Amino acid sequence: MQDADLVEDAFLYCEGGRIAAFGPMHEMPPDLAAQATERVDCTGRVVLPGYVDSHTHLVFAATREAEYVQRLQGATYEQIAAAGGGILNSARRTAAATENELLAGARQRLWEVIRLGTTAIEIKSGYGLSFDGELKLLRVAQQLKAESPIPVRVTYLAAHALPMEYRERRQDYIRLICHEWIPAVAAEKLADYVDVFCEHGFFTPDETVEILAAGATHGLAGRVHANELAYSGGVQAAVRAGACSADHLECVGPEELRALAGSAVVPTLLPGTAFFLGIAYAPARMMIDAGLGIALASDYNPGTCPTGNMNLVVATACAQMKMLPAEALCAATLNAAHALQWGSDMGSIAVGKVANFLVTNPLSSYTCIPYHFGHSTVQQVWVGGKRLV
Ligand SMILES: [Zn+2]
């Protein structure tokens, strides 16, 4: 992750939407120069792989800035939730919105993040809090996937919070998810993944493993919201279930590191959330030094991270979690692509991979990308060899 593998004064040659060749300019085969139909002069600029945002809740009905101001004035999350705010607020607004309204909002946000350099994205449901509500979100995500100029993976966040009426009979709710909802979502091909919010007071590690096993039976690979609020056992559950990723990981210690070492689970950190909530950051340094290949994602959602700006995510990872610029860029591109099972096809400048890349403004070094925090140095966005921005 520390090796940026920089090629100075380079050429990049694309053909059929894929990267066909790259290397130092003086090594460019003369026939390539002759047959190129379009040329872009990138003198003084950095060309880097496009961002892959492997964790978002992009489809939502309304922003929650009033709660943000209440929190700044000292209200706790519990007080806001008790007054009808929080996830319940999002769920209510989602229920009231039509599919077209949800799609219009999500489409606008998708184009906003594309302009900031996101070239592949994951979108979760989760604000439905009822089966019909979840189906509505998944259908909107699928419509977005069908029209999107960038690749999209859709995740069914089957277990986000336990509804009140199931407090005394959790097992009935888990059974409903495993034996009715997951099969229905899979049959309609509405999702690529299933996800569980594994935290104290939400879903236990055993329940998480049970739900992810049901997903696997129906062809949906697993993801886990893990160890955000406490040492919940979510990381170990993700490893036991063979999930693709364990996301959040603010609370990670030696036991979690041992569980992740040698597993195929991609530990995914979401520093935008810690920034916005003012909570402790995930121990990225400790995880990298333990040999883990971590990914970075935005967690774009209306409650805890209302930004999908991956430039800011990378900058926050550097400034607050002490990741080096090369590490943060690797985490936000190649490692995030692996978290979405796209690693062999995207996430780096490599011959044969899809030509998804960014061209920055003139910069003295790629390290200026996180250095100019809060800015986007991205000037051009290329996806499948076509310029989108
Ligand atoms: Zn999330």
Keywords summarizing the entry:
19% strand, single chain, 16 helices, binds zinc ion, 8-stranded parallel β-sheet, 4-stranded antiparallel β-sheet, 14 strands, alpha/beta, 389 residues
Order of helices and strands: EEHEEHHHHEHEHEHEHEHEHHEHHHEHEE
> How are strands sequenced across the largest beta sheet?
4-5-6-7-8-9-10-11
Distance from N terminus to C terminus (CA atoms, Å) equals 28 Å
Tally of alpha and pi helices: 16
Which stretches are low in confidence, meaning pLDDT under 50 for 5 or more residues running? Answer: none
Q: In which range does the helix fraction lie?
A: 25-40%
How would you characterize the largest beta sheet?
8 strands, parallel
Number of strands: 14
Structural class: alpha/beta
Shape: globular
Radius of gyration, in angstroms, nearest whole number? 21 Å
Mean pLDDT: 96
Strand share of the residues? 15-25%
- Any ligands, ions or cofactors bound here, and which? zinc ion
